[in-house]
Structure formats: C-alpha cells, structure tokens
Amino acid sequence: MERRQVGMSKMVQTVIVVGAGIIGAATAFQFSRAGQNVRIVNAGRADATGAAFGWINASFFLNNDHHQLRAAGIAAWHRVLADLPVPVDWQGCLCWDMDAPQMEATFAQLQALDYPVEMLTRSQVLAREPALKGIPEQALFFPNEGAASSAEIAQHFLRAAQALGAKLISNVYVSGLKTKNGRVIGIETQQGDMLSDQVIVAAGTGTTAIAQSIDCNVPLVSRPAYILRTTPQGRLLNHILATPDGEIRQEPSGQILMPVAVSHQSDTAEELVQTPTDAADAAIARLRDICGGLENCDWSEVIRAERPVPKDGLPIVGPIAEGAYVAVLHSGITLGPIIAELIGKDITGRLDNADASMLAPYRPDRFIGR
C-alpha cells in the first residue's frame, strides 16, 4: 500500500471516516482512490444529505471567501462527474426571492466575482418557465447551477469507495475518540474500540459530541427543517426556482421537491413550531400558487432534517488533534466534492498555496476560547 505524508510526520495507513452523508462518503471515495485502507462508520440515523434540497450553487454565500469555496465546489462536481455516474442535472436556477434593489445589487456583486449571471425580463422568464402563475418583472438566472438527487447521492460515493476496497460499518454509534499519549488513535463505540492512523469526523450534527470527547469545541446551532416531495407530476419545471414563496425544483421522477421554510438557505429558525402535516399542507398551498397545473397535486412525503450549521454559518474543516480531523458544514451538497478533495490534500500534506488559502477561513481553531 502506498503511504502518504500527513502534515510533517505521520504516514497514513488506515483511515476511519465517521459519517456516511455526502461529506463522509465523498471523503471516503477520495482516500480509497488514493489507495488507503478506509472504513466508514455510520450510526444509521437519518442524515442531512438525504433530506437536502440538493441545489448546487454559489449564488448564495456569506462573504467573498465563501463564494470562492462554493464556486470551487461547482468545479469539483464536474471533476467528480468525469469519474462517477452521479445523478446531477445542470438545469440552472431562476431567482427572484428578493426585491428589485437587492436583485440589482446581487447581479452587480456576482458579475464582479466573475460568476455567470444574467438578468432576465418578464417575457424571458415566461419563455423559460411557461407553467408559472405569477411571472416576475425580472429574475436572475444562474446558468451553471444544478441539483443532485439528495435521496441517493451519498450512496453513489459509498458504492464507488467500496468498489475500491473501502469497508462500510452501519448502525454503529461512535461515542467518542480514543486517545493515547495525547494522540487520537481511533474511535470508541459500544461494540468496542476501533483503531486507525487517522479519524475524519463528518458526522453532521453528531460532530460536536464526538469532538467534545477530547475537549474540543466544534459549535453548531440548531437548524431543523422540513422538506417535502409531491406525488409525481408531468414535466412542469425546467429550472430550480428561488421564489418569494419558496424554493422548488422537479426531480426526474416527476416529484417536486420543496423546503417548507421560505428562503430555506438563509432560514435561521431554531425550532419547528408546526406539525409535519400542517407545515406540508401550507407549503403545498404556496406551491399551487407558484405553478399552474398542480390543482390536484399533493405531498407524498415530508422529511424532518437536522442541518449541520456551524455557529458562524461557515464551514469547519481541519484538524482538532493529532490523528483527528473534522468537516462539518452547510451546504454539504454544494461543497461535498471540494471539501473531500481538500481534506485528502490536507491530511496527506499536498495542499498548495491556493488550497491552503481556500481552507484558511474555516479552521476549527477559530473557536478556541469561545
């Protein structure tokens, strides 16, 4: 087996990845492809990936560095798709979930960042989405954005990693990190300890408790969400739509996917105050007002998700101790492939200056002492 340099001294032989959502699965694929001995440990609970909206974008961002990372995420997706038959539809996004001054400012900001964006007129929007009921006077169009099938996306990476020799261990809960002489040497579970040269914790909302087992602070905030799928419909929508009444897109199955919260990406609610059925019924009513042809449409599934959102909203990616690394962030669908690439380079000591600069704002040590 090829051995690769970790940091300045450690040679990786066995890697344990905790978590089998998009971040863990994509990271396991990267390390398996590099010839490492990879074990993926999955607690078996519902992960955020399976309940995600699946929108791959860099039009939503918190600052310029965050935009750069998300744009790199789109590029990384295209590299992945050269190797894996992952279901991604690059249909682009039409966005009018803001007032006219905000739209103009966003358009100018994205142009300054060299991000593909167009300002469409009412007639241009109608030509692209003839089923819309309320046609906006103008909308932003992001042509290079797409959507992944969130319900199955992680499985594609897991199967690819397993084909390269990775081993998946399911329904085993990781209670903490095992240490020896100040170094993490594996994980602790109720079924016994598992040893490794490197542990990568990509356990979503479970990351905080695992990091706390070695007195490390990885602070997350509560961001629960409902997302619904409708009964299958005839083809109505051609793009991802970000509207004032919610974000919607249609999957190849014909089902329409819709987060229940309006402005799902920027939603800061810390608790869900409606029952799943009441929330889904209200969202379906909004959906019927957005798009024609849905008079008999109803929701067929509503899923509750616990989104792993760091305290400051930005990704947390990096070492928390010798032998232990964390990656927790939102949105994992957009950033999964690029974060997996960067983790692989970081742990094996192959970050170049551009990669190091991209990761620098997101290191866990920014929370030390908070």
Label this structure with key terms:
disordered N terminus, alpha+beta, about 375 residues
Topology:
Blueprint lengths: L3 E3 L3 E3 L1 E5 L3 H12 L3 E6 L12 E2 L7 H18 L6 E2 L3 E3 L4 H13 L5 E4 H7 L9 E5 L3 E3 L4 H11 L3 E4 L3 E7 L2 E7 L4 E2 L2 E4 L5 H6 L7 E2 L2 E7 L9 E4 L2 E5 L5 E4 L16 H15 L8 E8 L2 E2 L5 E6 L2 E5 L3 H16 L5 H7 L11
Parallel strand pairs: 3-4, 3-15, 4-11, 7-18, 15-24
Antiparallel strand pairs: 1-2, 5-10, 6-10, 7-9, 8-9, 12-13, 13-14, 16-22, 17-20, 17-21, 18-19, 19-20, 23-24
Helix pairs in contact: 1-5, 1-8, 2-8
Description:
This protein is an alpha+beta fold. Helices cover 28% and strands 28% of the residues. It has 9 helices and 24 strands. The chain has helices spanning 22-33, 64-81, 100-112, 122-128, 153-163, 207-212, 276-290, 332-347, 353-359, and strands at 4-6, 10-12, 14-18, 37-42, 55-56, 88-89, 93-95, 118-121, 138-142, 146-148, 167-170, 174-180, 183-189, 194-195, 198-201, 220-221, 224-230, 240-243, 246-250, 256-259, 299-306, 309-310, 316-321, 324-328. The strands form 6 sheets. The protein has an 8-stranded mixed β-sheet with strand order 8-9-7-18-19-20-17-21. Strands 11-4-3-15-24-23 form a 6-stranded mixed β-sheet. The longest helix has 18 residues, at 64-81. The protein is globular. The model is unreliable at 1-10 (pLDDT under 50).
